[in-house]
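cron nightly-structures :: item 1 of 1
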Amino acid sequence: MNLIKPEYGGNSNANIYASAIKFFGGNTDRTPLKYNLGRQDKLVLIILDAFGLSVFDKIKNPLADADVKRITSIFPSTTAAAMLSFYTGLTPSEHGVMGFTTYMKEFGSIINMLNLSHPAQEEPIQMLAQNFPKYISEKAVPLGVELSKLGVSSTAILPNSISDSPTTIFHTRGMNRVKYYYPWDALIQMKKLLSNEGKAFISVYIPVVDTLSHHYGPQSPETLSSAEDLLAMISKSLDGLKGFTALITADHGQVPNDKTNVVNQQLMDILDMPPFGDSRAVFLNVKNEDSAIRYLEKNLGGFILFRKSEVIKSGYLGPSLNPRFEDRIGDILAVPEVNESLIYSYRGEGDADYIAFKGHHGGLMQEEQGVPLMIIQR
């Protein structure tokens, strides 16, 4: 199988949380990166959405002093799960967010884990949005809360469109939130904060590459140009600054999408509910596992199929599963080893843009899992 297992033991983006705490002299039971970041007063984490190695390897890197490591994402390799791992140090099997959409038995529903809404709606479910920590792991203590105990001031620089979303508010507990409108003002805000005195942690999240990659494809000129320009802008922003360590990485990569498989009535007939997870990490609750596997093998030949017990044993979701979240895995997991996706359309014509995506992610192929970690120490 052409599938990459996330390297949760110290070489994944889930390990950055523990390294940040150790950077400032704290202790944690989470596993840190296997790379020594040293000790300075300031640490900045720049997350470039979908900036995978398959993009990085095709562009010029103006950051000549960056020590470039090759690490992995988490699984499912998707923003909703990865951002929670960045900010809590937990793997998906530990924190309970199993993809862009997750089945939550507590609500008897599939939930959009970015909006905390039903997938057919934009408005968050208020009970969930107001009590989000109750429905994920009790160990999910956000990084800003831990750093505040160490006397470290933390700031998250975030797109205006998501800066006040329920999940963002949770991720950035203990941190100041600074809104930005375009990458230019995001990096100016970052430079201002790095120029201040005292201990500080700064995170910057920029989703431009992901947006372009979905619409034009991960290897398109539009995507590669944006990625190269972002690194040039970051390089310029860091010029002349001293006394900091910067980590530049991604939540995941993307693969070209050669074919979108849209769930049809035949497939729905063998399911108990619509699929959930992500377009390339598809969890299925089925009426009969054996007959469902036969149907899927015949009609989705490029997808590798795992039963629930195999998913848990594989460690793809993490080294250990919180028993509370076993229902969130589904009876069968379908992961493609080809450039295809499987989606369920909740909104008909309203999903036309999504169905037409030229890039997707969520799975275990190298293009999705491999991400750079650029370490800059000045």
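cron nightly-structures :: done
Residues 221-238 form the longest helix (18 residues).
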